[in-house]
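hey so u asked for the seq, here:
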Amino acid sequence: RTWTLESSGINAEYGGSSFLAIFDCEFSLLYLSDSIMMYEGFLFVIHLFLHTYCQLQVAAQFFINLLRWWRVNKWNADILLSQTKTLGKMPGHVSLMFLEEDIPVQDIVKPIVWCICLGVTTISLYDYYGRLRSKKIDIDNELREYYSDFTKNCKSTPKQQLSPKIQFVSVENGRTDLVYAARDIAQDLVNGVVTEITKVNYQNYHKVFRNDHPDMMIKFGSHTTLAGYPPWPVHLTEIISLPTCLMISPYNFIDSLNRYFKIEKRVGK
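ran it, structure tokens below
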């Protein structure tokens, strides 16, 4: 038995089984070709969607940064004081921990100036490697410039002038001071200055903080760690975390203060 296949006016005869095999093969190739085209089209649509999404993200971030710049630059000391006057007594000592690298000096000095305007008398700047200490001159210059701009033409005078105690702290202040404290205590025991180890006044051996412990710490960075921060000064410190210090705004700072004042402080009660 034979089958006749007509294609484009040409007659060809095939055996039944051969015709079915060729027909199945051609059908499979057509199906595979259509599947590849559909797959390529699907990949193109995904690529187009992701490309458009990334472009929209870039554009959105640009407008967000522009809006932040506009909102931040219209702030001054008057607005900051009016937004925080109902919070309560400000902490006397604030520690700022920077766990990010390559932070612009402009972003470092902003929370310092805001603390000064609110009457904070002591500000500790901590980074692990002590790089901030090497930028002290740049920080001082930028601090004075930003403070002058932030308090310019303000009706209400900030609670203090630009004369707070600013100290630089790094991991060495924790490790080195611990070694020095242990050495001094041992020497005093040998000399008879201290008769019993249980009666040692450890506050006398703290090289950095003495009795001036931070009331509040703002930690900038995504790492959940104190990164070698000296342990004894922070046993009563309230720690507030912010994801980054880059392009920090007064809104972020005020939000940290709100979180600080919402914490119940019982101090051993």
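The two ends are 103 Å apart (CA to CA). The helical segments are 16-73, 77-84, 105-117, 131-134, 136-150, 171-191, 250-262.
lmk if thats what u needed
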